[in-house]
Design brief:
Blueprint: H1 3-11, H2 19-39, H3 43-55, E1 61-62, E2 69-70, H4 72-84, H5 100-114, H6 118-141, H7 150-165, H8 171-184, H9 186-191, H10 199-218, H11 234-237, H12 258-273, H13 275-286, H14 295-302
Antiparallel strand pairs: 1-2
Length: 310
């Protein structure tokens, strides 16, 4: 695998990103947090949580608006499932970018598990986008994008961000991305059958797969990314840490004032956590780089609600 990619995952920091990049990432966090809270109120969320509690081991990672906690893999699956319930309602989005529903739950679960700071969490989100977007362009150039889709690149990007949270180094990063490529490749085959996976299904399983891949790599399981070992990825990788692809996303998104952002956020979250906590959460996300432990964020969401919603 390209050595520059491995170095980037270990050395990137949100502090060197531009204000435009930081603003994009915060809008993604506001979007996905709001939709996850809204989705947690949906009828199907109960079934999803029941299934997850049976399948995965309890841990330290939060499920939105619930007293229950799971390990990182289970929490990523549940929260991504809830985030995608209403996410097709794009008129409410601050950023027209649906891969955030895959990236955010995975990175949040891993960040809670390892108790990283808000700054480190933002860095991992940036890494996920930058590598995922480049992998997609590389695949297009190699003419293999018809065999895989954007959710495959989302899984690889997710694994890269989680690898940063887990502080993986060297070959372990390569194995995390290789495992993500291997385990995400089933989606196109399923699409050729009756009853193909919906976008919502891809998001939840993709989020879980990205976490799984990085944690397996941490345990010493190995795999090599065919795409990132092709010898043709250099032109897409070399700009990592210098030129940010997230700055090119949604360049035509209409400008929105701070009060307009808050109004849209509250519209989706008030029914779940109340107006006061919605406002506090909005402010916390806007200053997330100041949080010392990411569990502060999830504690605010679930505080005082543990006896009401399980």
């Amino acid at each position: 695998m390209n050595r520059h990619l491995e170095v980037y995952v270990g050395k990137e920091t949100i502090e060197q990103a531009s204000g435009k990049t930081l603003n994009f990432l915060k809008k993604v966090l506001l979007d996905v947090t709001a939709f996850t809270i809204a989705g947690s109120q949906a009828e199907e969320a109960v079934g999803i949580k029941d299934f997850a509690m049976q399948l995965w081991k309890k841990g330290d990672c939060s499920l939105f608006i619930s007293s229950e906690k799971l390990n990182a893999v289970g929490a990523a699956f549940v929260n991504a499932s809830m985030a995608s319930v209403f996410f097709k309602d794009y008129c409410q989005l601050l950023e027209k970018n649906d891969l955030g529903t895959m990236l955010f739950p995975a990175l949040l679960a891993a960040a809670e598990d390892r108790e990283v700071s808000g700054k480190e969490f933002l860095t991992s989100l940036l890494i996920s986008y930058e590598i995922g977007l480049r992998v997609e362009k590389c695949a297009h150039q190699l003419n293999i994008d018809k065999k895989m889709d954007k959710y495959t690149w989302g899984v690889i990007g997710t694994a890269a961000g989680v690898a940063r949270v887990l502080k993986l180094e060297g070959n372990s990063i390569e194995h995390a991305l290789g495992l993500a490529e291997r385990y995400s490749s089933y989606a196109p085959m399923i699409d050729s059958a009756d009853g193909a996976l919906s976008d919502e299904d891809r998001v939840s399983w993709g989020s879980m797969t990205g976490v799984n891949s990085a944690y397996l790599a941490e345990k010493g399981i190995s795999s090599t990314s065919t795409l990132l070992s092709s010898g043709k990825e250099e032109s897409f990788i070399k700009g990592l840490g210098e030129h940010y692809h997230v700055e090119t996303i949604n360049q035509n998104t209409p400008y929105m004032t701070e009060s307009e952002r808050e109004k849209k956020f509250l519209l989706l979250t008030e029914s779940g956590i109340g107006k006061e906590k919605s406002k506090q959460l909005f402010e916390m996300i806007n200053q997330i780089e100041r949080i010392q432990n990411i569990r502060t964020l999830t504690s605010l969401i679930n505080k005082d609600l543990l006896k009401q919603v399980v």
